[in-house]
Structure of Pali-domain-containing protein:
Amino acid sequence: MKPEYKPLRAYRTISLVCVFLLFSAFVLLLLVGVSLPIVHPVYIMRVYATPTGPKTSLDTELRFGVWGVCAYSQLNPPSVLNDDGLCYGPRLGYQDVIPASILAQIGLSTALLDAALKGLLAVLIIHIVAAGFSLAGLFTSLFLASHGMTILSLVLTVITAILATVVFVVDVVITAVARAKIPEFASGLQVGVGNGVWMVLAALVASWAGVVFLSARACFCCGVRRRDYKY
């Protein structure tokens, strides 16, 4: 193996920082990419009603993940340790996944749900794609002694950051549209932002921070100097 292709042979501080940032982005994007109903605590959005009266087994909340939907009731509330919700999936896309009877319990029609979530299918898979690019950038960032590997790592990290930005914007827009439309047509319903959205935001920040560090190494700027190493 050539010296410049030995892990952490040079620019170790930058390399370790980038590895930490990209690993964090990878884990966050992967968790969101395999969110509910695979990983129950992670979800993108929830639609819920505020019940009145005694507790019942009727479903009052729907939580949406990348691969499906889970329904919860007052007697079976969602929690970190609770994976007993009535879930539909895993499958990509929500069309014809949720029985009309479940939607009727919380006052939501299938047509309204489809309208509120229009376009979601096209971007769901990007969560996994972004995680893959982050993992590739993490690996190449170990070899910053090579200028070519530095450029490759920078390109992969820029792609990761762009994909994470797209995913975050789309997740926020979809949640905002659902929040605006669903209560308008179904009184008593509310829409909440899931923790998956904030996890994507954290991955976005970590990815762009990685871009900054790798750019400093690639162009020898921001205090990073060109060095001649004797191997």
The first strand starts at residue 45 and ends at 49.
